[in-house]
Every structure is written in structure tokens, then in C-alpha cells.
Write a structure and sequence with these properties.
The complex is a heterodimer of chains A (about 270) and B (about 675).
Chain A (H helix, E strand, L loop, with lengths): L1 H14 L13 H5 L12 H4 L10 E9 L7 E11 L2 E11 L3 E13 L4 E14 L3 E15 L4 E8 L16 E9 L4 E10 L5 E11 L2 E8 L4 E10 L2 E10 L3 E12 L4
Chain B lengths: L8 H12 L8 H12 L2 E2 L5 H9 L5 H14 L16 H7 L3 E2 L11 H6 L2 E11 L23 E11 L3 E9 L16 E9 L4 E11 L29 E3 L9 E9 L3 E12 L1 E5 L7 E6 L8 H5 L4 E14 L2 E16 L13 E15 L2 E10 L4 E12 L2 E10 L20 E10 L5 E12 L10 E12 L5 E15 L10 E16 L4 E14 L5 E13 L5 E12 L6 E2 L13 E2 L1 E15 L2 E12 L4 E2 L6 E2 L2 E12 L1
Parallel strand pairs in B: 1-2
Antiparallel strand pairs in B: 3-4, 3-33, 4-5, 5-6, 6-7, 7-8, 7-9, 9-10, 10-13, 11-12, 13-14, 14-15, 15-16, 16-17, 17-18, 18-19, 19-20, 20-21, 21-22, 22-23, 23-24, 24-25, 25-26, 26-29, 27-28, 29-30, 30-33, 31-32
Classes of the chains: A mainly beta (about 270), B mainly beta (about 675).
Chain lengths: ~270, ~675
């Protein structure tokens, strides 16, 4: 057990993989195949990456996501969410769990997003954050995150998102939950090509830049590739679309620690016209 | 049409290549030569076969996807009526077409597809060229030595001489002879009774039937993706992020002055439309410092062969032509529609066995006097995808693999990927493939590049490259890894203005430079370049180039080293005027050699220079070109560097006592 713990912490240190301490993750194999640049993306995983993008989701959607970071089950990350569009805005519920019995983090969120105009949307999400470390106990706290999405033109979108702007404590003695600001842009180059780039700054970490591309070879098959810095990552992935069912796969490659496979499945309940 | 004053892709590309393989003697003359040649005799798009288009790939003007598209377009819709029709060819963007313009033409007279033998032999261009250059300040190696002194010094004069005679009919047929003497080498006396230190002769013909190409004398080879052979300038990471694939001719004439990196003998490429067979043999003497295993023994060895081709001192002369190198081999390519598959093999024999010095980083290097390396390669084009690669293995089981993919995703987006894995024990003596290091071994890596054209006049190019070295390397006493990034944003609203900003970031690991430990250990180093560049054709006769560049070099635990360089060029070239003038003034200030900055300079015809600047000072050059009569041109170039913080420039025998270094070049060309 001690060995496992040691391994876990050393991996965290080495990878600078911002896993420890309730760091908000980019979720969804589509986003992560594009380096993690998903702030402007309106899909069932908007509820994790930028809730403001939910305002552009038209149908009730559910999505589940799973990752085995560096192929280690102890570094697993699992999440799921539901998006519920109504006449007075879009509501969402999301949960995620990462880690293993000795060290794990839990997060649950309740979010609301709405359009301010045809081009601008905003959102707020209330979060419960829980951390549990064997022999140390459990800590939990509440915080919130807010997002913004602006469709500058049909082709250009830009988004902003802040997590935990009030800098709450994580529930462990004088350990602050991270405060993270994300800014991103995306560009619809054509009906076949979509590009996105994002900058992410945690108060206490070096700025992370990422960018990616999606190439829609045919409607049923999308190929993706991306890149991220701090830590330097290559990402690749593919998406298969069968009517309203989307199956996305991704693999991120870290130079030293290797490959992290990811899978997400989502379904949109399209209203019968 | 002369190109002095065109800020073109080639100059920028050469600059980046030289910066990349800083310490190796690159061979860019061939590239400069080809560029010039194609401008004078552009490719006729209506009569061009795949082979005729390949030189355009060599210059990085077109990708194979684009070449294929042009030929397919012509086959489907008939001949091009105008050059502007290229705009309707898929995968060709406006910028590519613009860059292509000087090198292609559309000739409606298709009857001249078959060149008459008489024309081929006599209707081409005869060129005779003589260039002399010299550094004006006295360098230590040239100072008078007392007779009886054993101090090393340069035997010859400080004059650098280059002469060549050449006949060529575009890229189809050429023959020529080149002679070159470096500064410090003797001329028609002493150690150089035969005159020039280096001579090169070539005869080359490229056909479109059974005989595809034949070369006698000096030639260059390119098989597959260069894991076995790719002489001449290689391919490398640069802002031309799609130029990462070899796609040029298998066999080319050798016309440069690098004294080592070529083959000498004969080579032939023959075959049918779908099969192409290459066979070659080469035999020449190369330099090497012969060592004896022990004083009584007959056994000798060399630690390395080749070198820089300089034979200025007694000891340099002693190492000249000490090793006989024989190379033979072949290549076969099958072309089935858009798929081409090939295999090649190369066998080398040295008269003296190679035995690198006993250093840990040489642990897996080639030793012995015979080597066979073989490989297979493939190149497949499917619509807008181009998948290519090569796998090679040597006689002792060392392996190397390269696989790449180019995708013209959209008129607005291009992508490139290169994965390579070169074993630490892979031996291939003439390899020149996509790599971070200058050798093709001990490296694995993944490269990806993208070009985005978001709006008219704008272009964004970027690449990222991860690389790992599983074994030690020179100056890196541990397995290491690194990361290269580049982003360039170009704004080119019209034909006269081009502005770009480039950010480059190279992070890698090397031995700590401040080390008090008994053992060397590695630390991270990071070098960033930030450049702003502007080219503006102010009027029909005046062109301006401006540049500002910053370098930040940071080694772990040490403070950042800074470098800065700025220059302004003024180019005067009035159409119809026999006189052209080019001048540059450049200021530089770099803390140390790690923060050096490279800058491509205009030069006399066929020459190129890309000096690296460190320390503090000013650089100035002026070039005048004067057309005496039709066919006779004279170039004069004067360049001077002044260092405000030095009293001694250079080191060893090249040392100059003073703060300025100046150089004069004079070149005369006769064309008939």
C-alpha cells in the first residue's frame, strides 16, 4: 500500500499532471484528442469544459467518459453528465470520480447556462469537491465556476471560463483548491475542418497551451489530433457517429510517462419533429 | 530575370537548415544552383512528366500531393491554356501558386515534348564562372614563420578561388568541371601540384524512356526517405512545415564543392513506366587521420573519415586522401498507380578500418571496414493523403524506421506527421533523413506540422516535435529528450509586402556547463527565438528588408543569455539597368555563443552565406552586379564586421589581431 502511495505521488510530481487537488480536467475524448482545447465546443461534455457552451445544446444529452492515465488503474478518471435544455435556459448535472481507494477525488456539479443573445451565452455551476486520502481522512468543500461563450462570426468562437474564483480551501488544512482561468478560440475552417486553441492558467502552475484539429473525413468518422504544453503532450483520436450516438476515442502521449487511453460515449435525444 | 532582391522561400529555408545543423558542412550550393537553373528554364507544365516536376519538390515549392494533382488535372482536362489555370487545381493555394510562378510556364506548343538530340547537346547554356575571395585582415596562420620554426601555419595564400565550366540543358542534360581552393591551401605548388585542392567533374543525362538517368563522374543519390542515402542538402524542421519528405530525383549531378558528401564513379537509372532500377558504383579517396594500433604493428585505423575538406597545414595535408572508399549498391522501385514500393541496398568498403575513439557515446557506432545496409520504402497517395516511409537494417541487425503522413485537409489547412525510430546501433554511412541530430541513429521522435490559412493574406504555420535519445550523445552523458516548437504568422496582403512573426522554442538536455562534480550530469536547456521580418517592394526599383530578432538561452540554474540582431537591407534593381546594388547594415549584441543569431545574406551568384553572430558589433555589406555586355556579368561584394567588445577575433590559426574582419569577393560569369 505504501508502495502504491509512493508511486502515485511520484507520478504526480513527475508528470506535473495536474490531477491532485481537484484540478478541473478537460473531459471528453473529443476535446482531449484535440489537445484539450474544448472550451468553445457545444456537446454533451460542455458541462465539464465550459458550461456556457451548453446554452447552444438543443437536445437532452447524456455523456459518460473514462480515462486510464498512463495505463494505470489507480489514475483512472470517470465522469458522467446530463444536459437538460428548457425554455428558460439549460440545466445540467455532472459527477466525476478519480483515483483509487487510497487516494481519490470526487466532484459533483449543478449548472445553469443561458443565451444572452444569439451569439453570447453565460453560465454558472455550483460544485461540491471531495478528497479522500487513506490515513488522513476526508475533506470536502463547495465552490463555483463560471463561463462565457461568444460566437464572433459563424466561423470564429471564443470562450472564457474560471474555476473557483473565490479561492476556497479544499477541506484539508490550509490547502487551497486550485483557481484556474481558461481562454480559448476556435475556427471552423470549412465544413470538414475544425480548429481550436486554448490557454489555461492555474494560479500556481505555468500556463498551459493547447491546440487541436478535427478532420471530418465523412459524417460517420472524424479524425483528430492535437498538442499541449506543460506537460508536453501529443494527442490523437477518432470519433464514430451513428445517428445520435457518438463514440469517441482518444490517446494522449506523454514523452516520459507514455500513453493515456480515453473513451467517451454520448447520446442526444433528438425531439421528433 | 535575376533574383537578387527577391526575398524568397529558398533563402529562408537555407537559413533554417544551416541554423539546424550548425556544425556540419551543409551542401546548399546544389539547391542554389537548381533554383537558378529552374528560373532560367522553367518547367513546362504541359510537357512535364512526374520526373520533370521533381525538382520543384526538391525546392520545397510543391508537395507530392500537389504534383499529382497538377498532372491528374492535365490528364483529365487537357493542357493548361494559361498559368492562372493553376488556381482551379485542387490542393493548390494562391500562395503556393505565387511562389511557383518563376519556376513554371505553360507552353502551348506541345510538339516539343521530345527534345532533339542536337538541341540537347548544343542548344543549352554554356557558363564559365570564376570567383575569388579573401579576408583582408591578416590571420595568424598566414603570418611569416621563421625558417626552422615548427609552429603550425597555413602553407598557401589567403585567397579562396573557385572556378567552374558547365553546359546544361535545363535539368535534362549537363556536364561540367569545378575546381576549388580554400584560403590557406597551396595552388600549383608544394602540396598542390595539380592546382586546385578539389576538382569535381560530372556528366549527366535524364531521359523519359527506358534510360531514365545516367551519371558519370560525381553524382548524388536519394533512395526512399534517406535512411540509406540522400546526398546533398537534407530535409529538416523549418517554418516550411510541409517540407518534411524526400520526393526529388533518385539521381542528380553533383555540382558543389563539399569535398566529401557525394559519390564518384557511375550510376544509371533505367526501367519502364512502372519499374525503375538504379545501380551505382563509386570509388574515391577520402580524408582520415590514420592511427596505429601500436607502434610496431602493421595494423592501422581511422577514428573518423570525411571532414571539412580543408588542407591548409602540414597535418591537414597529411590526412588528405588517406582512405580509399568504395561504395556500390542499387535500388528498385515499383509504381502501381498511386502506390510506389521500393527496396535498396548499399555496400561500402574502406581501405582502412574505422574505429571511433573510445568514448561512451561512441559505444554503438560503426567499427570495421565493410558495411552493408538495406531497406524498403513506400509512398502511397490516396486523394489528399500521402503516406510514406522507410525501414532499414544493417548487417549487424541495427534497425531504423521512418513513417510520415501528409494531408491536404482543406484548401485552408495542411497537416504533416513524421514518426521516426532510429536504433542506437543502426549504421548507415550515407543516411541523411529527418532527424533532430545530424546522424541517423540513437533517436526516436514524433513531429507534426500544420499550416492554416484563416483569411486572405494570412497564414499560420506551426510544428511540434518530441524527440528522445535512448543512448548518450556527444556532450550529453545520459539518455535525454527534448521538444521543439515553432509558430509563424505571415501577413502578405499583396505582391509587394510580406510581414511575418516567428517564435521558436527548443528545449533539450545536455551536460551542465558549470559542473564541479567528478561526473558529468545533464540539465535542461531552452533556446527561444523571436523574430519579426518585413519585406517591402517600395517601387519598381527599390526593395527593402527589415528584421529584428531576439534570442533567449537558458540553462537550468544559470541566468538567461540574451541575443539581439537587427538589420536593414536596401536593394536597387531597375529593369533594363546594367547595374544592381544590394546593401545591408546589421547590428548585433549577443551575450555568448549560445545566444548567437543566424542571418542569411545576399551574395554573389551561386554563393550563399549564413553567418552566426555573437558578441557585440556591426555588420555591413554591399554587392554590385554589373552587366558588361550580354553574357558577361561581374559581381563585387565587400563585407565587414566590426566588434565593439573584442580586440581579437577568432581563435587558433584564424585569429585576427584587431576588431574588424572584412572580406572581398569578385566573381565573373561568361554565358554563351
Amino acid at each position: 500500500m505504501k508502495k502504491k502511495l509512493l508511486l502515485f505521488f511520484s507520478v504526480c510530481m513527475h508528470a506535473m499532471a495536474t490531477l491532485a487537488g481537484n484540478e478541473p480536467q478537460s473531459i471528453g475524448a473529443k476535446t482531449n484528442a484535440m489537445g484539450g482545447a474544448g472550451i468553445t465546443l457545444a456537446d454533451p461534455f460542455s458541462i465539464f469544459n465550459n458550461q456556457a457552451a451548453m446554452a447552444f445544446v438543443k437536445d437532452i444529452s447524456v455523456g459518460i467518459f473514462s480515462e486510464r492515465r498512463f495505463m494505470m488503474s489507480e489514475l483512472g478518471y470517470n465522469a458522467g453528465g446530463v444536459i437538460l435544455p428548457t425554455k428558460s435556459g439549460v440545466f445540467g448535472v455532472s459527477v466525476s470520480y478519480s483515483g483509487f481507494d487510497v487516494y481519490n477525488e470526487k466532484k459533483a456539479g449543478l449548472s445553469y447556462a443561458r443565451l444572452f443573445s444569439k451569439k453570447i451565452s453565460g453560465s454558472i455551476q455550483f460544485d461540491y469537491l471531495g478528497t479522500s486520502i487513506a490515513e488522513y481522512g476526508n475533506g470536502s468543500t463547495f465552490t463555483f465556476e463560471a463561463g462565457l461563450l461568444v460566437k464572433i462570426t459563424d466561423k470564429f468562437s471564443t470562450g472564457a471560463h474560471v474555476f473557483n474564483p473565490v479561492r476556497v480551501n479544499s477541506g484539508f488544512i490550509d490547502e487551497k483548491a486550485p483557481t484556474v482561468l481558461k481562454l480559448g478560440i476556435s475556427y471552423e475552417a470549412s465544413d470538414k475542418v475544425w480548429l481550436a486553441a486554448e490557454a489555461k492558467k492555474d494560479i500556481d502552475q505555468a500556463v498551459q497551451l493547447c491546440a487541436g484539429l478535427e478532420y471530418r473525413v465523412i459524417d460517420a468518422l472524424h479524425l483528430r489530433a492535437g498538442f499541449g504544453t506543460n506537460p508536453a503532450l501529443y494527442t490523437f483520436g477518432a470519433g464514430i457517429n451513428v445517428a445520435q450516438l457518438k463514440i469517441d476515442m482518444a490517446a494522449t502521449y506523454h514523452q516520459v510517462l507514455g500513453v493515456s487511453p480515453q473513451l467517451s460515449i454520448s447520446y442526444a435525444f433528438v425531439k421528433k419533429k | 530575370m535575376d533574383t537578387t532582391g527577391d526575398s524568397n522561400k529558398k533563402d529562408d529555408y537555407i537559413e533554417q537548415l544551416i541554423e539546424k545543423d550548425d556544425n556540419s558542412v551543409g551542401d546548399y550550393e546544389g539547391l542554389v544552383d537548381l533554383d537558378k537553373n529552374l528560373r532560367e528554364r522553367p518547367v513546362n507544365l504541359n510537357a512535364a512528366f512526374d520526373e520533370d516536376m521533381k525538382p520543384l519538390h526538391e525546392l520545397g515549392l510543391l508537395t507530392d500531393i500537389q504534383i499529382n494533382a497538377i498532372i491528374t488535372y492535365r490528364e483529365k482536362l487537357g493542357n493548361f491554356i494559361s498559368i492562372y489555370e493553376l488556381q482551379s487545381v485542387p490542393y493548390l493555394d494562391l500562395e503556393t501558386i505565387r511562389n511557383l510562378f518563376p519556376y513554371v510556364r505553360v507552353n502551348s506548343d506541345i510538339s516539343v515534348v521530345q527534345v532533339k538530340t542536337k538541341d540537347l547537346l548544343f542548344d543549352g547554356d554554356y557558363t564559365m564562372l570564376i570567383r575569388a575571395q579573401q579576408i583582408l585582415e591578416e590571420q595568424k596562420g598566414f603570418t611569416e614563420v621563421d625558417s626552422g620554426s615548427t609552429a603550425s601555419h597555413y602553407l598557401g595564400s589567403p585567397l579562396n578561388l573557385y572556378a567552374r565550366y558547365r553546359y546544361q540543358y535545363n535539368t535534362k542534360f549537363s556536364y561540367g568541371i569545378t575546381g576549388q581552393k580554400d584560403a590557406g591551401e597551396e595552388f600549383f605548388k608544394g602540396t598542390q601540384k595539380q592546382g586546385f585542392d578539389f576538382y569535381s567533374f560530372h556528366l549527366y543525362y535524364r531521359g523519359n524512356n527506358f534510360l531514365k538517368a545516367i551519371a558519370v563522374g560525381d553524382y548524388e543519390l536519394k533512395f526512399g526517405q534517406g535512411l540509406l542515402a540522400a546526398s546533398g542538402f537534407g530535409i529538416s524542421k523549418s517554418s516550411m512545415v510541409m517540407t518534411v519528405k524526400y520526393g526529388g530525383r533518385t539521381l542528380k549531378p553533383y555540382t558543389s564543392t563539399n569535398e566529401f558528401n557525394f559519390f564518384r564513379g557511375g550510376a544509371v537509372v533505367m526501367g519502364t513506366k512502372n519499374i525503375s532500377l538504379t545501380a551505382f558504383i563509386s570509388s574515391k579517396k577520402i580524408d582520415g587521420n590514420i592511427g596505429k594500433v601500436d607502434t610496431l604493428d602493421e595494423d592501422v585505423f581511422v577514428t573518423s573519415v570525411g571532414g571539412d575538406g580543408l588542407h591548409r597545414t602540414e597535418s591537414e595535408v597529411a590526412d588528405k586522401n588517406t582512405v580509399h572508399q568504395t561504395v556500390t549498391g542499387g535500388n528498385i522501385d515499383f509504381k502501381i498507380h498511386s502506390l510506389s514500393l521500393g527496396a535498396s541496398v548499399i555496400y561500402s568498403k574502406y581501405s582502412v578500418p574505422l574505429s571511433p575513439s573510445l568514448e561512451p557515446y561512441n559505444e554503438f557506432r560503426f567499427t570495421g571496414d565493410q558495411l552493408t545496409t538495406g531497406g524498403v520504402h513506400y509512398d502511397w497517395q490516396y486523394r489528399n493523403f500521402n503516406l510514406f516511409g522507410e525501414a532499414a537494417m544493417d548487417q549487424d541487425g541495427g534497425k531504423a524506421l521512418l513513417s510520415g503522413l501528409l494531408i491536404s485537409v482543406d484548401p485552408r489547412v495542411d497537416l504533416s506527421f513524421i514518426y521516426r525510430n532510429y536504433g542506437k546501433d543502426f549504421h548507415s554511412l550515407y543516411a541523411n533523413a529527418f532527424a533532430e541530430s545530424s546522424t541517423v541513429d540513437n533517436e526516436s521522435g514524433m513531429y507534426s506540422g500544420i499550416i492554416i490559412r484563416p483569411a486572405r493574406a494570412w497564414q499560420i504555420a506551426a510544428y511540434a516535435d518530441f524527440f528522445n535519445k535512448p543512448w548518450l550523445d556527444y556532450g550529453i552523458d545520459a539518455p535525454s529528450n527534448g521538444l521543439d516548437l515553432l509558430t509563424q504568422v505571415t501577413f502578405k496582403p499583396n505582391k509587394v509586402l510580406e510581414v511575418y512573426a516567428r517564435w521558436k522554442n527548443e528545449a533539450k538536455q545536455q551536460n551542465s556547463s558549470v559542473n564541479n562534480e567528478p561526473l558529468d550530469y545533464i540539465v535542461g536547456v531552452r533556446k527561444q527565438n523571436l523574430r519579426f521580418n518585413l519585406s517591402y517592394k517600395a517601387s519598381s526599383s527599390f526593395t527593402l528588408h527589415s528584421r529584428a530578432e531576439w534570442v533567449f538561452f537558458k540553462e537550468e540554474k544559470l541566468s538567461t543569455q540574451y541575443g539581439f540582431l537587427a538589420y536593414q537591407d536596401l536593394i536597387y534593381h531597375r529593369l533594363g539597368s546594367p547595374l544592381q546594388l544590394t546593401a545591408r547594415i546589421c547590428l548585433f549584441d549577443a551575450d555568448d555563443y549560445d545566444a548567437r543569431i543566424y542571418a542569411y545574406e545576399n551574395d554573389v551568384l551561386y554563393a550563399y552565406s549564413v553567418p552566426a553572430f555573437s558578441n557585440r558589433g556591426m555588420r555591413f555589406y554591399a554587392i554590385a552586379r554589373y552587366t558588361v555586355t550580354r553574357g558577361v556579368d561581374v559581381w563585387i561584394r565587400y563585407a565587414q564586421t566590426y566588434y565593439s567588445n573584442l580586440t581579437v577575433i577568432g581563435s587558433g590559426l584564424d585569429e585576427i589581431n584587431g576588431d574588424t574582419k572584412s572580406e572581398v569577393k569578385v566573381e565573373v560569369r561568361f554565358k554563351f
